[in-house]
Amino acid sequence: MNHVFVIAEAGVNHNGSVEIAKQLIDVAAQAGADAVKFQTFRAENMVCRTAAKAAYQIDSTGESETQYAMLKKLELTRQIHEELMEYCKEKNILFLSTPFDVPSVRLLADLGMRIWKVPSGEITNLPYLRHIGKYHQKVILSTGMSSMDEVKAAVAVLRENGTQDITLLHCNTQYPTPVPDVNLLAMVSMGKELGLPAGYSDHTQGIEIPIAATALGAVVIEKHFTLDRNMEGPDHRASLEPDELRRMVEGIRKTEQALGDGVKRLSESEKGNVSVARKSIVAAESIRAGEYFTEENLSAKRPGTGISPMLWDEIIGRKADRDYKVDEMILI
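User: That's the sequence. What structure does it adopt?
Assistant: Structure tokens below.
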């Protein structure tokens, strides 16, 4: 029997506190998870300062601050990463973290991380995927908000840059995900069509759907968890608490509804997240009319309302037809 690799997703549920992060590691280790995963990013590299929050983030944290301000409070320093990695060793659980920008990829590589988790929002970020691929290490690729063609394109970029050990994670990025939108059979069809192992990253409420995914052959299960769903922060409400084991019978009923039709598609519930979670090509610095677009003066940042970073190669080498300010979307 194959061992299902269970990732306990702490994410940003540490709320910026090292002590809460360590308590989350304790919970994950005691639960028997194989890995506990955090998120590594710098807000200024991840999102434009005026980018709006997703609807679920507004529901959890209000509208008084931008997505940038919310994320800025949830960054982890290099020192904190080192402290948490050491604590994971003490607790005999693997430390993982999802990088959301290229500098964060470099930081995690420097710290010795050898399994890369690519989040759904970066699946159309060509320079990011190339950088991950060049490490030639295991990649776990989340595929929320994606069509089958987009998944194939991302896998192709990773392979072209030297990565062959790829596991796909079917995912719906809505927090919490409506059960009819889970479409677990897409996990099966996606794995078969691409000839790759497949698993499931879950954002539903409760534990029933990950169990159903395991029954369908998932090799990786990823699930958000928290100390208390009533804590302040964007992801707590859709995270798991220990007492949900008692909801097993209800989970059987939910599993019947969640099987889906096996077609990988963007669901109605997550359409509003595409422009929030994906990125556009923007100016990384001031650019004057007539200057050439280069790898150095361009960046990929949220929101995804402009030119997709998958068109990066078509933009590099062109001349700017006007002046651009920092973070301004490139137009052609």
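The first helix runs from residue 18 to 31.
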